[in-house]
Amino acid sequence: MRKQRKFSPDFKRQVVEELLSGISTPSQLSRRHDIASGLLYHWKKQYAKGSFGNEPTKEAALKERVRQLEQLVGKLTLENEFLKKAVRQSLEQEKKSVSSLPTTSASLKASKGGAS
Question: What is this structure's pTM?
C-alpha cells in the first residue's frame, strides 16, 4: 500500500499553471509527477477558487456568488413559507372566534315578531 503524500501549495500551483498554459498535457503531468489525473483536476478546481495563494478566477468567484445567493433564496423561501403558515393559522383562529358568537343582527331581525 502506498504511503499518502503531501504536496505544498506552491507545487500544486506550479503544476496547475503548467497545465493551464498548455505546455504539458494532463497525462504528461500525471506521469512526470506520479499523480492521478483526478487529483490534477481537483487541484485545477482549487486553483480556480484561489486556494493556492493565487487570485481566484472570475468564473470561480461568480460561481461562489451564485451559490451564496441560492442559499439566501432558500433561506428566504423557508421564512416566507413559515410566515404564510402563521398568518393562515391566525386567520383561521380569528374566524373560529368570530363564528362562535351566539347571535348576529341578521338573526335578531328574523327572530323578532313572534309567529307569523
Answer: 0.48
**For residues 21 and 47, what is the distance between their CA atoms, to the nearest angstrom?**
13
How far is the C-alpha of 67 from the C-alpha of 69, rounded, in Å? 5
pLDDT for position 107:
54
In this structure, what DSSP letter does residue 103 have?
-
Which of the following CATH numbers is that of domain 1-56: 2.20.25, 3.40.30, 1.10.10, 3.30.10?
A: 1.10.10
Domain ranges of the chain: 1-56, 58-94
CA distance readout (Å), 88 to 65, 79, 83, 95, 100: 34, 14, 8, 11, 19
